[in-house]
TrEMBL record:
<dbReference type="InterPro" id="IPR051531">
    <property type="entry name" value="N-acetyltransferase"/>
</dbReference>
<dbReference type="InterPro" id="IPR016181">
    <property type="entry name" value="Acyl_CoA_acyltransferase"/>
</dbReference>
<protein>
    <submittedName>
        <fullName>Acetyltransferase, GNAT family</fullName>
    </submittedName>
</protein>
<dbReference type="InterPro" id="IPR000182">
    <property type="entry name" value="GNAT_dom"/>
</dbReference>
<dbReference type="Pfam" id="PF13302">
    <property type="entry name" value="Acetyltransf_3"/>
</dbReference>
<keyword id="KW-0808">Transferase</keyword>
<feature type="domain" description="N-acetyltransferase">
    <location>
        <begin position="9"/>
        <end position="184"/>
    </location>
</feature>
<dbReference type="GO" id="GO:0016747">
    <property type="term" value="F:acyltransferase activity, transferring groups other than amino-acyl groups"/>
</dbReference>
């Protein structure tokens, strides 16, 4: 995994010793319940999540450069089949030819930020760096992002990244949430040419 730096953040791989902080931040119910997973139960559970979910080459721990504090998480994962099937069914409009031809190389971002660190623009800063890496480092043709229909805070992050709302996934079973929970998810997208234009890259 390539380390990414921004003005205030370092994005690095998750480590086993992040477990106490993951528990402290991820046990707050509003984090997981808005991101699609159950709140972290204890430090042992945090260790398991780090090992089985967060330790891969596309999920970054977000840390403050100044203090090395762990503040949140951002991932740039391979695009989900459910999103691709929307495109194949013609339920996503407006993609350009090069984006349609290389759909399997598009990526999907997902993120959360600990409550004490929200409202400072940190997620926007991290997500801008991740998009730059996706387009310049990985040459991805496009990047997707999904949020539960009423998650306005997450939608704001996507809007400020220049992503467009392009479709909707209805009645998605959230297998990591307790009980039988189904979400309607809004689907956002930004293509490479749009990102380059927004960033004045020719
Ligand atoms: C979604 C989530 C990451 C958004 O966090 P956030 O703190 O609102 O996002 P940012 O870090 O980009 O901060 C944005 C806010 O910081 C404020 N801000 C303060 N200083 C700032 C600065 N220097 N630069 C930019 N914004 C700044 C802005 O006013 C902005 O709010 P606004 O867009 O309403 O004006 C957070 O709410 C979260 O983790 N929620 C739970 C999990 C979740 O929903 N994940 C997404 C699943 S799809």
């Amino acid at each position: 995994m390539k380390l990414l730096h921004t003005e205030r953040l370092t994005l690095r791989p998750w480590r086993e010793d992040d477990a106490p902080t993951l528990f402290a931040l991820g046990s707050e119910p509003s984090i997981g319940l808005n991101a699609g997973w159950s709140p972290i139960r204890d430090i042992e559970n945090a260790r398991d999540v780090i090992e089985s979910v967060l330790s891969n080459d596309f999920t970054y721990a977000m840390t403050l450069r100044e203090s090395d504090e762990l503040v949140g998480c951002i991932a740039l994962k391979p695009v989900a089949e459910s999103v691709l099937s929307l495109v194949h069914k013609g339920q996503i409009a407006g993609l350009e030819t090069d984006e349609l031809d290389n759909l399997d190389q598009t990526r999907e971002i997902g993120y959360w930020l600990g409550v004490p660190y929200q409202g400072r623009g940190l997620m926007q800063e991290a997500a801008e760096a991740i998009l730059r890496y996706a387009f310049e480092g990985l040459s991805a043709p496009g990047v997707w992002a999904l949020h539960e229909a009423s998650n306005r805070k997450s939608e704001r992050v996507m809007e400020k990244l220049g992503m467009d709302g392009v479709g909707m996934l209805s009645h998605v079973h959230m297998s990591l949430l307790p009980g039988e929970v189904f979400w309607d998810e809004h689907v956002h997208f930004i293509g490479r040419s749009r990102w380059m234009k927004n960033n004045r890259i020719s």
